[in-house]
């Protein structure tokens, strides 16, 4: 068993309204932030779902010294405009070195403005102050093993006191959400009917994969989920599942064998979107 490691979070950020509305998931994000601060983490390293780069084997690291925020719909600006983002350029350089060493074609992006997939979570976890944060891009080929390997390359940072977070979605298909209540009444939590069976099934498959596998088995279970018969129903596009692969890489080495992930909170939105919140491991 490892001596001292931070946990890894796979968070489902859901719709933009998860920033403004109270939920069980939001409470859990805050709890994780409080614990991270109490443990004195050095910084946060995130892979989201909304930023990707093109080219085989390519990945980028956020190196904008003063990033702006892409605006979010359906949320009052007061919930986010004044929140100061804190980019961690020193750790960004460290990530670039580690990824290059592992054979990735990695570049700094000094123009990237942060998007709600990451800052929604940061605001919820750390409402008082953003910790030093580094964002790692996706690769636009959305290949699960590639993103798993990115997580694996950065895993040593867990031993150095960094908190690694993947922010995507367990069940996240915008084309199959039921949007009317949100569009008409700003009610993203209305569940006029139960979720459809494909959503329930894939949600269960994600929970089973994370809670029933550890170490390299976790990596295989998560990457294999993209072949699940319900995957394409649950994810019309692959982008929100890459964060899960990143987490499996970051928390799925031989040394992580025996450390199982747990479903800690869950919030259904828009009838068919399942925002499951998982944590793999615990502060040692
Ligand atoms: Fe998203």
Automatic annotation (TrEMBL):
Q: Which Gene3D superfamilies match?
A: LigB-like (3.40.830.10)
InterPro entries referenced in this protein's UniProt entry, alphabetically: Extradiol_dOase_DODA, Xdiol_dOase_suB
Q: Which cofactor does it need?
A: Zn(2+)
Report domain Extradiol ring-cleavage dioxygenase class III enzyme subunit B positions. 8-254
User: Is Nucleus included in the keywords of this UniProt record?
Assistant: no
Keyword line? Dioxygenase, Metal-binding, Oxidoreductase, Zinc
Q: Name one GO molecular function term.
A: oxidoreductase activity, acting on single donors with incorporation of molecular oxygen, incorporation of two atoms of oxygen
Pfam families recorded: LigB
- Record's family? Belongs to the DODA-type extradiol aromatic ring-opening dioxygenase family.
Q: What is this protein called?
A: Aromatic ring-opening dioxygenase family protein
**Organism whose genome encodes this protein:** Lophiostoma macrostomum CBS 122681
């Amino acid at each position: 068993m490892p001596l001292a490691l931070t946990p890894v979070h796979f968070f489902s950020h859901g719709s933009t309204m998860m920033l403004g509305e109270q939920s069980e998931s939001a409470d859990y994000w805050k709890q994780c932030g409080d614990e991270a601060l109490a443990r004195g983490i050095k910084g946060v390293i995130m892979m989201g779902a909304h930023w990707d780069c093109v080219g085989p084997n390519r990945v980028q690291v956020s190196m904008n010294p003063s990033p702006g925020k892409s605006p979010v719909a359906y949320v009052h600006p007061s919930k986010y405009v004044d929140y100061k983002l804190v980019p961690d350029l020193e750790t960004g350089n460290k990530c670039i070195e580690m990824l290059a060493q592992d054979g990735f074609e990695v570049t700094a992006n000094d123009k990237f403005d942060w998007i709600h997939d990451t800052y929604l979570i940061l605001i919820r976890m750390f409402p008082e102050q953003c910790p030093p944060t580094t964002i790692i891009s996706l690769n636009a080929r959305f290949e699960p093993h590639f993103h798993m390997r990115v997580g694996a390359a950065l895993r040593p940072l867990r031993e150095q006191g960094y908190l690694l977070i993947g922010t995507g979605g367990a069940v996240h298909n915008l084309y199959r959400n039921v949007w009317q209540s949100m569009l008409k009444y700003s009610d993203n939590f209305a569940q006029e009917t139960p979720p459809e069976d494909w959503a329930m099934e894939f949600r269960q498959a994600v929970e089973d994969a994370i809670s029933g596998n550890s170490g390299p088995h976790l990596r295989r279970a998560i990457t294999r989920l993209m072949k699940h018969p319900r995957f394409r129903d649950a994810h019309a596009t692959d982008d929100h599942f890459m964060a899960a692969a990143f987490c499996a890489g970051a928390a799925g080495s031989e040394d992580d064998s025996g450390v199982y992930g747990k479903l800690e909170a869950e919030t259904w939105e828009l009838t068919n979107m399942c925002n499951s919140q998982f944590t793999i491991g615990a502060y040692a």
